[in-house]
Design goal:
The protein is an alpha+beta fold and 341 residues long. It has helices at 49-70, 78-84, 95-111, 120-132, 138-145, 177-191, 284-297, 299-308; strands at residues 12-19, 27-35, 38-46, 91-92, 153-156, 161-164, 197-201, 204-207, 214-222, 231-237, 240-245, 251-254, 257-260, 274-281, 313-320, 323-328.
Length: 341
């Protein structure tokens, strides 16, 4: 679950605003910077460019600071230092790292481990397999799995410490780190007086107030089987997070079989079933954590999790030789835009 995960087949694309009657004379400003191995883009409405520039700079600085906390590629990051500490020893951590790990454990508990922030050893092994086009051996998978399990991660809220309870544990926040950073950047924009804003980190988007005079941000949905053949629908959203997951671009074929970049903690391998998920949630940290989680769980268990989670909706698309099948959660229809893509 790398920070640079591309949007893949299921593109979340800003299309504009969903129409309503009121109009406010604010100008639209757009910014983009590379962070966490992906492009973060900010779209906001402000009364002046000076205010827009100041707010966007502060938001990008917040994203950069979070990258220093959460990166599993940078040996100097706080996450890497935590993973390098002796196991069994409580380690004091920053408020940011503690918060994102708390959120991770909530999703891990609710999903029965389909989402797991301790999956790092398996992710590293699968990255190497994708690079070499060779499956890991059963022994390699078993050795990595011995250090994986969200119950091996212990948080102490009173002391704000983290304990890794097994040797060789590696935490991976690629499953919700970008969404968390997008939420935090949106908060910075709001603190700078700009509430009508959107922060997008590849397939993870945090949405604030809608554009002036509109009732929501319009987000396009691309096809799973033909991502370059236009959009299949659109969502109209505000004050929400929306995330997508799929394997159209990030996959590997090994011994004649297609494997996704999404790692199943149970098998230690990339997913082999073709599934795409879009999640609408109260914030982007939740939507980011759930899109890959539902992919791992599959449509039946995944939809049950979605329906049980307050404020969460989903579209699940399955692709096989017969074509694709779309499954919508009970609350999803209310977010569909009336406009045509």
């Amino acid at each position: 679950m790398r920070f640079g995960r591309l949007m893949g087949w299921f593109a979340a694309i800003l299309m504009g605003g969903c129409a309503t009657s009121s109009q406010v004379k604010y100008e639209r400003y757009a910014y983009a910077e590379l962070h966490m191995a992906t492009m973060f883009s900010i779209t906001l409405y402000a009364p002046s460019q000076a205010q827009a520039d100041r707010a966007a700079r502060a938001a990008f600085e917040r994203i950069a600071a979070l990258e220093d906390v959460m990166s599993d590629y940078d040996s100097r990051s706080e996450l890497s230092r935590l993973c390098g500490a002796p196991y069994g020893q409580p380690v004091p951590v920053s408020r940011d790292l503690f918060r994102v790990l708390q959120l991770s454990l909530v999703t891990a508990e609710k999903s029965g481990g389909a989402f797991d922030p301790t999956v790092g050893p398996l992710v590293r092994l699968w990255r190497q397999s994708r690079k070499n086009h060779q499956l890991p051996s059963p022994g390699e998978i078993a050795a990595a799995q011995a250090a994986v399990g969200y119950r091996l991660l212990e948080l102490d809220a009173r002391r704000q410490t983290v304990t890794l309870k097994h040797a060789g544990m590696r935490l991976d926040l690629g499953g919700n780190g970008k969404g968390f950073a997008a939420d935090e950047a949106l908060l910075v924009l709001r603190q700078n007086g700009l509430r009508s804003a959107m922060v997008a980190a590849s397939g993870d988007i945090a949405l604030g107030d809608p554009p002036p005079g509109k009732k929501g941000w319009e987000i396009g949905i691309a096809s799973i089987d033909h991502p370059d053949h236009g959009l299949t629908g659109a969502l109209c959203l505000a004050h929400a997070g929306v995330s997508t997951s799929g394997d159209t671009e990030q996959f590997v074929e090994i011994q004649g079989r297609r494997y996704s970049h999404i790692v199943n903690p149970v098998t230690g391998l990339g997913l082999t079933h073709r599934i795409g998920v879009t999640i609408i949630a109260p914030n982007a940290a939740i939507s980011d954590s759930l899109d890959t989680t539902i992919s791992v769980l599959g449509p039946d268990k995944g939809m049950r999790l979605v329906e049980s989670w307050p404020g969460v909706s989903a579209l699940i698309v399955l692709l096989d030789e017969a074509g694709n099948q779309q499954l919508k959660s009970s609350r999803f229809e209310r977010y569909l835009s009336a406009s045509k893509p």
